[in-house]
Amino acid sequence: MTEKPIVNIISNSNYESRRVSKRLMDKLLALNFVPSLDLNQDAVLTIVVGGDGAFIKAVNKTAFSSIPVVGINTGHLGFYQEIIPDQLDDFLKAYVEGNYMIEELSLIGAEVFTKNRSFYLTALNEIVIKAQHSKVIHLNLFLNRNHVEKFSGDGMLVATPSGSTGYNFSAGGSLIYPTMEVLEITPLNPLTSSAYRSLPNSIVIPGDIITTIVPERRYTNSSLLVVDGVEYTYRQLRKINIRMSKRKIQRITLNKDNYWTNLKSKFL
């Protein structure tokens, strides 16, 4: 007897998301799927119900699993959440019939070095380094060990292409098509004066270039790392090496041109 395929459902806690999740579970059962509210590593699909924030939290929660993921949007307009609740039947029909595409989204990895230890962090959207307590921070930026600048300002952000529409864009960064193999380094409120000379605009680099950020010694105990919105603090922070991860997530899409529709609706 063939086992029924398992589908993970990860939902926001708000009323609309819970309501849509219940409808989704009923429809999956009718199609001989087994819906799971726990993360099952044997699942064939993970469905995230919520907004873009829910999607980002979900892929982090799954440890960036290779299980294909799709988003049902119950929040504001989302770039990750393609399906709206009224399209549940259309999506499930397309999925069962195999009428969908897999879009591979790049991840960003950071190796964090303190005086005595190192840590590895992964993100879908961006990694940010800034000072705690709203102070100006001074950072040295290296690309493949080549010193580029001594930055002074609120901080520095490194975004993936799919993350370029989020914090990066709000900070003045450029939009990058989500499947490109590049990263974007965006300054956060750089200081530019006779005393401080920081690059005022973003830099777009190939994903295999190693970006190294070294805080000045006086900031080694007061630097804050923000990884997909989650804050980390480290004592005696020495440097951070950032590059595009070799891992990717598999996002299901029904229309690859949906990116341009979302772009116009959200920003124009």
From TrEMBL:
EC number: 2.7.1.23
Classification via InterPro entries: ATP-NAD_kinase_N (IPR017438), ATP-NAD_kinase_PpnK-typ_C (IPR017437), NAD/diacylglycerol_kinase_sf (IPR016064), NADK (IPR002504)
Pfam families (alphabetical): NAD_kinase, NAD_kinase_C
Cofactors: a divalent metal cation
Signal peptide segment: none
UniProt KW keywords: ATP-binding, Cytoplasm, Kinase, NAD, NADP, Nucleotide-binding, Transferase
Top EC group: transferase
GO CC field: cytoplasm
SUPFAM superfamilies in the cross-refs: NAD kinase/diacylglycerol kinase-like
Binding sites annotated in the UniProt record for NAD(+): 52-53, 57, 125-126, 135, 154, 165-170
Any GO molecular function: ATP binding
Subcellular location: Cytoplasm
Single biological process term from Gene Ontology: NADP+ biosynthetic process
Active-site residues from the entry: 52
Domain of life: Bacteria
Chief localisation class: cytoplasm
Swiss-Prot/TrEMBL catalytic activity: NAD(+) + ATP = ADP + NADP(+) + H(+)
Function: Involved in the regulation of the intracellular balance of NAD and NADP, and is a key enzyme in the biosynthesis of NADP. Catalyzes specifically the phosphorylation on 2'-hydroxyl of the adenosine moiety of NAD to yield NADP.
Name of the protein in question: NAD kinase
Taxonomic path: Bacteria, Bacillati, Bacillota, Tissierellia, Tissierellales
Gene: ppnK1
